[in-house]
Write a structure and sequence with these properties.
The structure is a homodimer of 207-residue chains.
Chain A: H1 38-50, H2 58-68, H3 76-97, H4 110-114
Helix pairs in contact in A: 2-3
Chain B binds a DNA duplex (16 and 16 nucleotides) through helix 3.
Chain lengths: 207, 207
DNA sequence: ACGATATGAATGAATG
DNA sequence: CATTCATTCATATCGT
């Protein structure tokens, strides 16, 4: 895996209208399942790791999917599932690697953020697009919001029989933002026109 | 084409191939996917066929992987995937063996697979009228299909950027809001963003 | 070398 | 949320 981007996905913002409703000519081109575009994944991860979104509610899902729609066909449920899965797998990974009693759901300390990541060429050096205002409720303590990315559980155990993983720094600013609307206006400005997909992966993985 | 399958590689049963201490330029994480050793496969199958293990949980996975580690490098996820795949493929094989007239199974091609695939619960094929119908009963045809209803994913969100006075999907649930406390009241809706309401499908849901 | 196959890995979609 | 199913991609390995 590493850098080999990969996987299956294209479907740029261009409309592919597969669900057109008509009898898709027997072609099975109509992939039944949503295949996020690179940009969509990027944004989703930003929301997840940077903004700390974990379980968006209906309204948020709508906004998110509306935003992502600029990069490709997408429905609300896709966003919903994406977050569900992403969170679940992050958790799962943790269990498999070492079922460390995941508790200490107290306040995380800044140090947690810096927890080194695994040795990877790509570190999380995301060009923080100046995100500033963040408003996201949904506390998600769990002391570790593993910001590491690539794909879950990937790094092999370094030492023989050793326990590894350093769980990465998270990001999340669970500042209980009650009532205020959603402030997804943070780095709302992604290249609308999508001039050039900066494949600069803050998060290498493909997703 | 009975079972001439499996068992290809061997890989030195001993030795943790890579990741070892010295790591012969093996910094790359999992550059190569896990290739179970013969012993590992044997044990895994014993667990699967004899002990009936199908979906080991976190603890079991760790246990198993710990045991298999004696025979070669392995991670929890490998065990997890192994069972997932093994079960899935066994299931698949069974389908092709039973659901197809036991005759010309001389050599089916992967394309044949695509014949089964039962429908999805909900189809997202027809454009909805935009009406806010709430409970979509759907055709269900397979014994235990859960009935689904419209879920909150697709509930329209008020205006983009607009102040959402009351009602509307003004995301304002406190973080401690368990259960989907969707509260948007359905008062008229408007297509936000994108004037192209392509097939906004009725969503399924799990109550 | 290649192509087919087996299977590891990833992840969307559901269900409970 | 936890679990599981379904699909699909990627690749190790083998047959020819």
């Amino acid at each position: 895996m590493e850098l080999q981007q990969q996987q299956h996905q294209q479907q740029q913002p261009d409309e592919d209208n597969n669900g057109g409703g008509k009898g898709s000519f027997l072609c099975r081109q109509t992939s039944t399942r949503w295949t996020p575009t690179a940009d969509q994944v990027r944004i989703l991860k930003e929301l997840y790791y940077i903004k700390g979104v974990r379980s968006p509610n209906g309204a948020e899902i709508q906004q998110i999917s509306a935003r992502l729609r600029k990069y490709g066909k997408i429905e609300g449920k896709n966003v919903f599932y994406w977050f569900q899965n992403h969170k679940a797998r992050e958790r799962q990974k943790k269990i498999f690697t070492n079922e460390v009693p995941m508790q200490q759901r107290t306040a995380w300390k800044p140090e947690d953020y810096y927890s080194y990541k695994y040795s990877n060429r790509f570190s999380s050096s995301f060009a923080n697009t100046g995100a500033v205002t963040v408003g996201q409720r949904d506390f998600h303590g769990y002391g570790s919001v593993t910001m590491q990315e690539k794909t879950f559980w990937d790094c092999p155990v370094p030492a023989p029989g050793g326990s590894n993983i350093g769980a990465g720094g998270g990001s999340m600013m669970s500042n209980t933002n009650y009532g205020s609307g959603i402030s997804y206006t943070v780095f709302d400005q992604e290249q609308e026109a999508d001039a050039e997909i900066e494949t600069l992966p803050l998060f290498p993985m493909h997703g």
